[in-house]
Design goal:
Layout: H1 2-11, H2 20-36, H3 97-110, H4 119-127, H5 136-152, H6 156-184, H7 189-193, H8 213-229, E1 233-239, E2 247-252, H9 253-258
Antiparallel strand pairs: 1-2
Helix pairs in contact: 5-6, 5-8, 6-8
């Protein structure tokens, strides 16, 4: 069956095959995890009601897709009982000075036809865009972790710890980020700019603006990797599904988050 095919493909990458006891233990653990998550809310149906008030998210051009995963805001966390302590301040209120300043910056630098955006800024945006046809932001950071792991010759146990910690953090980052997104339900720049001639450099994803999913995923991953390897300083190279053939080099995890 499909399960056996995937299992055999994964096991082919190991230098030695697991023993029967090791395989039974791994299978029991995986079944236990799946059983604990079967009612976690990920498949819950949510009746999302759009609003037309200034500052509220609505469907965006060119595809006008429905809101993505609004039920995710109610999914049970993996590592915490409550999300309360993680909530950041909300986005600036429409009409405020902070909002006007931020919107002006986005209008000038984020437009498809911008003459103020530098080549480096455009490369950065496209390199980390990680849309749905790619490995996505969490996958991008898994690629980074895998590259560092190979370079340092980590063993199976170390890799198990590394990727378990990384992906639990990324899973909770997704849940928390979506909780906050649908709490504030903040509109996207393409709606806020409200100029027919203005189009964003990248296609707008179908979920509220604040906070940035890419920023939340990257921040969580960088913290986990710095803790696991004992230092934020780490020289690594990374490629991008969004820009085949392009490779970027970084000297720390925090540098990658910022750039």
């Amino acid at each position: 069956g499909e399960f056996e095919t995937i299992r055999d493909r994964l096991l082919a990458g190991f230098p030695t095959s697991p023993t029967a006891n090791e395989w039974a233990t791994a299978h029991q653990c995986s079944v236990s995890v799946l059983d604990s998550r079967k009612d976690d809310g990920a498949n819950r149906s949510v009746n999302y009601i759009p609003h037309a008030e200034p500052g509220q998210w609505r469907r965006t051009a060119p595809f006008f897709r429905p809101p993505e995963l609004p039920q995710w805001s109610a999914v049970t966390l993996f590592s915490k009982d409550s999300a309360g302590s993680f909530y950041p301040p909300g986005p600036p209120a429409p009409g405020s000075g902070a909002w006007s300043s931020a919107l002006d910056e986005v209008r000038r630098l984020g437009g498809r036809a911008s003459t103020e955006r530098t080549a480096e800024q455009e490369l950065t945006a496209k390199f980390w865009s990680d849309f749905s046809y790619t490995n996505t932001p969490p996958g991008h950071w898994n690629d980074i972790a895998a590259s560092i792991s190979r370079g340092r010759g980590l063993g199976e146990r170390e890799n198990a710890r590394l990727f378990a910690r990384l992906n639990v953090a990324l899973a909770d980052a997704a849940i928390l980020c979506w909780k906050i997104k649908y709490t504030h339900n903040f509109w996207r720049p393409i709606t806020a700019v409200a100029e027919e001639s203005w189009q964003p450099l990248l296609t707008t994803p179908p979920h509220p603006e604040y906070p940035s999913g890419h920023g939340v995923f990257s921040g969580a991953a960088a913290e986990v990797l710095a803790d696991f390897f004992g230092s934020d300083a780490c020289h690594f190279r990374v490629r991008s599904d969004s820009m085949p053939g392009v490779e970027r080099k970084f000297d720390s995890f925090s540098e990658a988050v910022k750039m």
